[in-house]
Amino acid sequence: MKKDYDHVVRMENIHKHFGKVVALKGVNFEVGGNEVIGLIGDNGAGKSTMVKILTGVYAPTYGKMYIRDEEVDFRQYSVQAAHRYGIETVYQERSLGEKQPLWRNFFVGRQITNRLGFINTRKEKEVSQHIMLDLIGFRGAGITVESRVRVLSGGERQGIAIGRAMHFDADLIVLDEPTVALSLKEIRKVLNFIQKIKNSNRSCVYISHTISHVYEVSDRFVVIDRGEIVANIKKADVSLQDLDDFLLKYATGKETGA
Amino acid sequence: MAKTELRSVKTGFSRVEALPIIIVYAALIGTFMITAPGTFLKPRIYQAFLSTIPPPLILALGLTLIVTAGEIDLSFPAIITFSGFVYAFLFSRTGMTWIPFILAIASGIVVGFVNGILVAKVGMPSIIATLGAQFFWSGLTVILSGGLAWNIRAIREEFIHKFFTARLGGYFPAQALWAFAVAVILWFILNRHRFGEHTLFIGDNMSVAQVMGVNVQRMKIKLFTLMGGLSAFAAILLTLEMSTYWTTQGSGYLLIVMASVFIGGTSIFGGEGTIAGTVFGAFIVGSIEAGIVASGLGGFWTRLVVGLVLIIAVSLNIFITKRGSGEANIRKSVFIKGLRKEASEDE
Lengths: 258, 347
Prior knowledge:
The complex is a heterodimer of chains A (258) and B (347). Chain A has helices at residues 47-54, 79-84, 102-107, 121-135, 154-167, 184-199, 211-217, 240-257, and strands spanning 7-18, 21-32, 36-40, 62-67, 70-71, 87-91, 172-176, 203-207, 220-225, 228-234. With 258 residues, chain A is α/β, with parallel strands linked by helices. Chain A starts with 6 loop residues before the first strand and ends with a helix. Chain B has a single domain, classed as ABC transporter involved in vitamin B12 uptake, BtuC (Orthogonal Bundle). In chain B, a hairpin with a 3-residue loop joins strand 2 (167-168) and strand 3 (172-173). In chain B, helix 6 (54-68) packs parallel to helix 11 (174-192) and helix 11 (174-192) packs across helix 12 (194-204).
């Protein structure tokens, strides 16, 4: 499948201020078609703010953003608009309603309804079944579309959220620390899901503190520090050891420098 | 193969909504039939219930949505007195029946809308915003009405009185049908409509709702506005039934309406709500006083029994949702079996 654009998304000189706090100062960032970006940075470096601007939760203070090479009008931009543009987000713990059945979680915010807004529950459950079996290959024991999210393990939850993103034909899936608080086996599942994203010709922004995982799945690494992009490295140009050393030097250098 | 793995693990029994509370209600009425057969084996008492329970039932139905969204509303007793006053005042001054009806509903909608703005836009906790509203609107009503009761007995000759509170077939109170209609509509809204799903997710986890594209602020304003409108409707049913308006009307409703919602099985933590449970909860609370008096215990026992039933019903609910549906347990056992299987495959 040929993509008829250069970048799924491109940020240009994005600034974000929260009152007097400057969270982002002139961020330039782009994601190409079928590219997996590892976004790396300390807590408070501005990763989450970037993601929230990208996915329509916040508007930037100023700066420009392009989706498939077309400029985004931030007055019109919202979470729903991002969904329509094919941008989906999987947050570490904010993706699913714990007490709700899976089928509601797949469709909340974009239900299959009639004109009066009543939900076609049978259709939603059918499609949910399809997402679970065919898209994410859930062999989950004892899980049905009626199961509540609270009976799922952490990795299964991320799988559900990623499956949802794939079903809605996302061109870009943003994973905001999806492996926090997961066991090794569960993390492996999530990394396999990311491979599925890549194989299905989609793009991905993967945020994690675990550099070895980021290294394994990403095509390119973007390092952000104190609201600025400080490095942009292709996987081909760096080994895991080099990347690790670079980040370590950066972290310690920052401390002595400050 | 995969299809069978995904089949529902729920049994038919646990699928009946609000089953524990239906059992509690049946047990309660059964007890009263034994302790007060002269009253509870005759139809009259049920007619009385069907005429007195609808106003608090409608309030409890609206409150169920508010609580499901993780909020609370303490201001509905003030709307009962405020909107009731608006209706009684306009009717006795103009003699009109339907325009005062519309304006009274509108007055409740305004109060609810202001609550919604305070909670969603100003960011006040709903318990405080609506406590303030309760004092303010009931205070305003006392000032406007001069604290007087209004006799509007002339309303009994009007069509609107029959429309909402006639005795159908000489027996069945029409307001019960209106309350059931509200229950059916709200059941569909909560369980089958986008609005209800958004309500569930807001109560479950507000930031999930937000990142999934639910406009949380607007939803909250809508919910409180709906509650205001329903409260005004309850106020009108009450005023028509009594054909008298008094400034303290509704003041006794606060605790019994909240008890109805929680006895019904709606969770104070939000994200889960049951309309059917609330219907039975309201009937339980509404039946206890009559049952106790008819059983010869004396009205002083009412509160004690309501408290007891509340605690028993909520405990039963926790017990049944934990073990009865068994979803988590079945999951666990299947999961453990799966682990064992994987372990044996590894060997």
